[in-house]
Amino acid sequence: MKKTIFILLISVLLASCDTDSFLDVKPTGKLIPETVADFDKLLENPSNQYYAYRNTFYMDPDVELGPNGDQRLWSLSMKRQYEWAEHIFNEDENDYDWNYNYQYIYIHNMILGEIDDAPLGTASEGDRVRIKAEALAMRAMNLYILVNEYAAHYDANNLDAPGVPMPLEINLQAQLPRTPIGEIYTQIEGDLETAASVLMEKRPGRNDHANFRPGYASILGLQAEIALRKGEFAKAAQKADAALAQYSFLYDMTTWTHKYEGNPWGGIEGDNGNDLRYQTANKETIWNKSSMFIYGNPGVYWNMELEDMMDQVNDMRYVLFSSKIDYYGTDISPYTSYATYYQYRSGGITVPKLYLISAEGKARTGDGAGALAMLDILRNKRIKNNTPLTFVDNASALQTVKNERRKELVFTCNNFQDLKRYHSYGDIIPTYTRTINDQVHTLAPGSDKYIVPIPRKIIKFNPNLDID
Question: What is the pLDDT of residues 332-350, one digit of tens each?
Fold first, then answer.
């Protein structure tokens, strides 16, 4: 077997990596993988869960910083996100969304290229098949994140639109061009089908031990999200329902309270509420890809329009995580802080998201009553004395689904992606503006500002990526 570097602590490597060109640094470490068991350890590293859409966090119109709030942002790249700037990173800066996801793909390609010939070690032949399926699925997840962050929304009428590089084997000298979006989606969907055929037997449900590794429910969940993004609404609902049949745990937030009365910054008491602090412990997470985790420095505020939609007395998503006092004890009225300092929020596949996907798929295919029924399953675990939603018509049911997505997925980077896809369906979305230092910045429907620019440092070393 070709000698390839095995990273004992991938997280250290990724945190310190300085990628001078596209996939230009071969990881180095102390040990060399020689067995299937070694490859299993590669996938077991929790660093595999990081970096999903973090570049879009401050781009999301639901993220509010208040007047001149950008002055509290401690990096130039954050300020550029908040301004919807043409470029986010300078030529000498690293983009960790890009770097991490391609580093993960490097590892997955290494496993896929070598595991067939590797000796078993302490593993079994069944483990070999399972690990290969997991590596296929995890590569698919990372490609999915990359193509949706750095390229236009999927459009069945323009499948040749430029996506992102799609390395399917290790070649550190290759300067790959941007693969068409349609081709990337075809690869992703094919790999997920292959992985599903294995994991439905080898890993049914989710991976309870390491929720950043996929189980069968995880694959179904990503397939549901992909179908939703493509506008295949009936398929989205069907896949989401199938995933929920595999795994459907929801925390009952209506039983939770603040650990210290009157101090929402002090944590949650009841029903393992602090599982939310670390996504690896979160039982609602089916396939974790963490979006953000620090919310107190700088503090972020509830969007006032979204805040007005919330039942501020009974909706525990608001009650537990809202305060007119910021982390440092400053009164920020009339704004309301998202009152948690440190909490991993998943941009991956979660049980709440599956209920929302199922509901949206149903609402968009004429089953608005069924959509509201799915929402109420979720709302019963979030809102004290929840009043069941009343069906009026499919259009209003769909709007209710959209509103519920904003409430449930707030500060996970999902809303920005939702606005991007809603426009592709022909839905009406607003034009957003932010006034910063007397300069007005605009995010218009369908704008290229919904596409994160490929970092200039990467383009500098691989001009094949520059399409301007």
Answer: 999 999 998 767 788 899 9
d(Cα 93, Cα 58) in Å, to the nearest integer?
Answer: 18
Domain ranges of the chain: 253-283+294-338
Decide: helix, strand or coil at residue 244. Answer: helix
How much is the pLDDT for 6? 37
Peptide bond into 463 cis (omega under 30): no
Task: Return the closest-CA partner of residue 283 out of 298, 273, 270.
Answer: 273
What's the rounded Cα separation, in Å, for the pair 373 and 355? 10
Question: Long-range contact list for 76-82, CB < 8 A, 24+ apart?
Answer: 81/55, 81/56, 81/57, 82/58, 82/434, 82/436
CA–CA distance, 64 with 301 (Å, rounded to integer): 5
For 285, the enclosing helix (H) or strand (E) is strand 285-287
List pLDDT tens digits, range 385-398.
Answer: 999 999 999 999 99
Mean pLDDT of the chain: 89
Task: Record the pTM.
Answer: 0.92
Rounded Cα–Cα distance for residues 221 and 225 (Å): 6
